């Protein structure tokens, strides 16, 4: 995970997972600039996935065990990055915690649920907590 703060209080976050990059920012123009720069250096394909209004869907928990088992280390890396990201995004903490319970035997349904979290992040890029250093280091915003 890479994070950038600009002088005009804009925050840009890049999450790199194997050969995938997730870009979120509170400035649409900044996202377009990053996509353009990445496309100059790498072969880029936009997923165009639909955003999700919630990070987890609890009504269909049985679907999490559908499909085939997925590759464990890739699942663990992705969920691990989301665990780090959830420290500043309390709105995904429960969903990430739920998906982390399947780190040792994930199924395709679990991976689909993790992708739902990513789609939610796409829909709500400016939510979250910002911890700023203050002069006296006693307060957090």
Automatic annotation (TrEMBL):
Residue span, Reverse transcriptase Ty1/copia-type domain: 1-49
Pfam families (UniProt xref): RVT_2
Alphabetical list of InterPro entries matching this protein: DNA/RNA_pol_sf, RVT_2
Domain of life of the native organism: Eukaryota
Endpoints of the signal sequence: none
Protein name, per record: Reverse transcriptase Ty1/copia-type domain-containing protein
